[in-house]
Amino acid sequence: MRTLVTGGCGFIGSWLVERLLNDGHEVHVIDNLSSGHARNLDHLKGNKQLHVHIADIADHQKIEPLFAGVGKVFHLAALADIVPSIEQPLKYHHSNVNGTVSVLEACRKHGVKRVIYAASSSCYGIPDVYPTPETAPIRCQYPYAVTKYLGEEYAMYWASVYKMNITSMRFFNVYGPRSRTSGTYGAVFGVFLAQKLAGKPFTVVGDGEQTRDFTFVSDVADACVTASERDDVTGEIFNVGSGSTYSVNLLCDLLGGEKVYIPKRPGEPDQTFADTAKIQRVLGWKPKVKFEDGVKTMLANIDYWREAPIWEPGTIAEATKDWFKYLG
Predict the structure, then answer these.
(1) CATH number 3.40.50.720 given to 2-174+216-240
(2) Does residue 205 contact residue 270 with C-beta atoms inside 8 Å?
(3) Is 154 an active-site residue?
(4) pTM attached to this predicted model
(5) For 7-55, how does the pLDDT look when each residue is reduced to its tens digit (9 = 90+)?
(6) What fold, for 179-213+243-272+290-327?
(7) Which of the following is catalytic: 117, 144, 149, 185?
(8) Which helix (H) or strand (E) holds 120?
């Protein structure tokens, strides 16, 4: 089948592209390289089934013809990170909301049979319940979370009103090789691995006892593919998580290195932990990669982060000052 992946040069997108090619699909990628990197697909360049188009998803006239003849669309293109979204909310709305509507309309015009929307667990904010189910209240804490949730709302509206087959997947703390090398939030592995290569201590927020539902990227790609194969499931929202939650201190211990503690950030939950009962029940999906094995894989690929920015307490404080200013 001809499939299309928006954001296919990004971290998660590149893993999904590789999975789809391995499954025998013809894969078209749309990416403007604002946060993704062409090098993420370098190892797939010789595959004649791969077609990469450099374009902004919000440029509807440019991208719409690329959806002709496409059977499945995986919409992953988005801007991520907290601080930049606070500083540039219009830019995030353009990409994550306008871009999503542009993609949905292109899918509608060309009769795409199946659409998977990549949503974010950040929509839960600081939840009341752990593990957190899909029915938990929405408490977006910053523009990135708001725009990703609005994109999901549009996707569910298109599914309901236009009778399109659309499923939304709320990702929890995705990690793995090719994860982002920049940012002071959301890319904790990129921050830590660059620090490890430089012989610097890990910058641990708060006391490090906060836990995260670290989910390996190949499991996330598998969840998306599994959802795309169910034509009888539409208008549904699923959490995608690891099935457990792990402390930042444990991550540091597994990576091996000294730690330095920096102030806790406002608006951050002490825990993220997906309730995955629904996706297991409806789609029969379960994660496969154990956290310890995933960390070993990261260490085996540590050279990817050799040229990543090296964050220290002072530079982090400067980069996150707007975070404390607006969310404190």
Answers:
(1) yes
(2) no
(3) no
(4) 0.96
(5) 999 999 999 999 999 999 999 999 999 989 999 999 999 999 999 999 9
(6) UDP-galactose 4-epimerase; domain 1 (3.90.25)
(7) 144
(8) strand 114-120
